[in-house]
Write a structure and sequence with these properties.
Strand order of the largest sheet of chain A: 10-11-12-7-13-14
Largest sheet of chain B: 6 strands, mixed
Strand content of chain A: 5-15%
Largest sheet of chain A: 6 strands, mixed
Number of strands of chain B: 13
Oligomer: heterodimer
Largest interface: A-B, 155 and 133 residues
Helix content of chain A: 40-55%
Order of helices and strands of chain B: HHHHHHHHEEHEHHEEHEEHEEHEHEHEEH
Radius of gyration of chain B: 31 Å
Strand order of the largest sheet of chain B: 9-10-11-7-12-13
Shape of chain B: elongated
Amino acid sequence: MNLRGHAQAKFERSDIPQPATAKEKHRADPASDAAVTFQSILFPPGLENLRHDSAEPPACFVDLNLDQIVAAIVENRDEAVLRPIFYSPCRDERIVRYRQAVFRDLERPEIYAVFPPFTEAMRAVRANLDYAGKISAKCHRATVILRAAMIYCDAVSALLRDLQSVAPRAPGLRNFQVYLATYIGSHRFTEFAAEAWDIRQTLAELSYGLLFLGDKVTVRKYASEPDYTVTLLERFARFRDNDAQPPVPQKPRDDFALNHIEEGILEFVGRLFPEQFRRLDDFVACHADFIDDVVARFDREIGFFVSYLEFIAPLKRIGLYFCYPEVSTFSKETSVAGGFDLALARKLLKEKKTVICNDFHLTGAERLLVISGPNQGGKTTFARMFGQLHFFASLGCPVAGHSARLFLPDHIFTHFEREEDITNLRGKLEDELVRLHQSCEAMTPNSVIVLNEIFNSTSLDDQVFLSTKILEKILTVDAIGVCVSFIDALSTLSEKTVSMVSTVDPDDLARRTFEIARKPADGLAYALSLAEKHGVTYERLRNRVRP
Amino acid sequence: MKPLLMHPDRDFDSQAPSEKEPLPFAQDIELDVLLKATAADDRYINDVMAAACAHAWSNEAATILYRQDVLKDCLANPALVREFYSIAIEPFDRNHSWSFSLYDRSASSKVGSGVHALQSSLDVLKRLRRTCSANAAKFTSRGFQQFFATLERDLDDAYLNAAHTDLTNLTFQNGLLLSAQVGDGGKAIGTMLRKPQERDLSWLRRTFTPGAPSFTLQLHPRDEAGSQAFAELENRGLILIADAVYQSAEHVLGFLRMLRAELAFYLGCLNLKDRLDQIGEPVVFPEPAQDDSTFRCRNLRDVCLALTMGHAVVGNDVDADRTPLVIITGANRGGKSTFLRSVGLAQLMLQCGMFVTADALTSSLHSGLFTHYKREEDRTMRSGKFDDELVRMSAMADAIRRRALVLFNESFAATHEREGAEIARQITSALLDNGVTVFFVSHMYEFARSFLDDDRALFLRADRDESGARNFRLREAKPLAKSFGADLYQRIFKASTAASALQENPPRGSHFRAGP
């Protein structure tokens, strides 16, 4: 849309003429001419129009525990920016590969280390500017903007220096580096940075006095009055038990903001030193929007990569594998080796417990994994993993596993049992059916379905009847998916279903291995052994209730 | 000096359960709906009511009747009680700004707010005593009479006036001078306490000698935040002079704090009564039964359902004297969960000393309320769903004592019916044999059948009426073997058959997008 306008803007702010070859290269190969075409680290040049950030999480988020994962990823980061990116998977192989290349670069520690300080600094810049926007007092507003400008100058300069020293390979990062060099070399930027530094020094040398009297405070220039702490301490020394140290001046509790009194005082200081503050005002007026658009977008978007890698780093450290899946929008050949549930892995990591990995594949006509077997055998976890793998593959992220080949779906439908909700006066069973009906209506051959123990609020007969009906519908549509169920018969509904079973340790039936293996359903469950383990059989419970 | 409106002999524990550890049963009986109605948007009342609920199980029958009497006084004089409350909360008003600042670490605000707190508290107590004295005749309960007597005895005018004069001298006369420089973001840096100039300290000198150019900022009298900011700045010089005023203020405020908490409970009850009057739900004071294993209700309604629906709801009659096990079976959507909730709520309200939504209720006192509801998949992923149910059961077993009341809602069904039924049977039997009362909603026929010959069990069933529509009233009846899922399936899926599932286009509202 504005390629030309953008190039012109570059020219204005740069005293370094652009290389004559730039435009020619741009015509020949848009992806290689970064200074002109670099727009986004998330979308390759020419595909930016596929950006459709969603403000709301996809419906499958809670069921798949993606909400926990994403909450952990964006924790202490700019959630408002990152969440929409994580809410917006894409069904395009080129975008996925562009992002995978950036991730591969960032997996090199020296490249990765470049970005957290930069994003942290940019966050501080935005926080200061947001804050400045809410300030009406002139001097206060100007000093906050100056603070933002200082942080910004330091941050972009450091970023370029660091990028040059690590030499990234991903097209996205290389293009950005070229762009940044041009920007920082520009006359406009260097002048801006020097001026900001100089004004800051001047202000730090202005001394003023504050005289508190009742409900008034008087502000004036500091007139070399002597230090009073010493005098007063001597006067009150007789009231104290010990030889007291002079108290350390209290640091303001809030280093960031000024309250309205401090603000009022600062405005008076501005009047006492009009020349110095006028210079500050001019600076602020000249540089209203000092943040470069492309830098700002890069800052927002690199957070996607950094936050995800930071999230998986501790998992990699304990020996779990992540891989770059081969993705396809047409082939439903699916295989994953060594996959695991990210949310669970993160929790087990904290508890220092082992994470069990699982393999699965769908070949030929196979579409639906039917998981049965003992409770607490990892079935629900397996179902979540299945959904998570497809979701993160569509985001372009490395996924859990040694190797993976995954289908890029148009939608992930999930059905996990719900809690009762007083505001919804329909019964639980009816709720489940209504939601399932909506999903069956919306499902396409390109969808992924995750069903977890549906219909448990009804009797055994009803469960068999209803589950069979729903699975038949899914198989007819030809979507791929996974279904966790107690009902053995579901695993042999057609040649499209694959039976997988959670396994137990043969030596100790109450202990689960959490491995899910491809084999026929055997109908064993171990409820009573579990009850014994938790001490809630009749005999155990009888002795546990206190008088 | 204690208000003693909640217990005849001691202070009320107004510590609400923390948000991290809410009452375990709160979610299952929708306690928040009840609390919200009592609070009428007052966060504080909400917390006090939550505290009352948390501590309800240790109340004896005498305490319950004591509160019922006080509450009857309140229902007879709602406007006066609201007036007492509005006076008592004054010191805590204005966003709690100055009561909070008592905990401030800064020296100058400790002094400033301490003086302010004492002055305001004494004024409040004086007006409260006068209002109470004028209306004492309208209150008959022991609780209120005792309270009025305390005010007359301990807060006479002579005492209040003497205390007031003590406070007037605590002000600072000397000017306080600081110096600083302009740091990042306009923050003062390098702050130092300086010796004021001669002319700063004398009004005469200021008038007759010219000073350097200066600007003066005057604090608005009601600018609380500003006075705190002043205090923080001044504090850098005042840190040596503090602490004494603070403790006396704490002491007086303690009484007002307790009074506020105890009145807040009754305010909450008044708010709830108003709300129930609006939606046409009558209330009755329940009777705490002397014997164990008594439960009799007439037209017992789920107060939270009524509050949610905004109209009167259907109730149930149950006579479960000497049947400590009540098993509720029957049609989905038949009002089973609603009944279970109404039992939990009514028991809780009874033991708090509140009224209940019923025509009559007599019930034994229980040592605690425990709920075991089928939960959504365990979000912490520690375990499978069935295992999670057993883990929760085990945690409950650690807390349950004899005479507890346990509500099960479709528990232990996350496995084969045969196994689930067996485990439910064992758990239920163990609880009964330990003197625990159990209400169990279940669709597991196998489970219900195992108690058919047990004379400790009462069976209730949710039924359809002749037209096939659900009837929300339960009746005494043995369990039936089958549930009713198939007809729901017919109704929901009939309109659109499998044909629509074959559509090629992406669904509406799809959040993935296809590449070009």
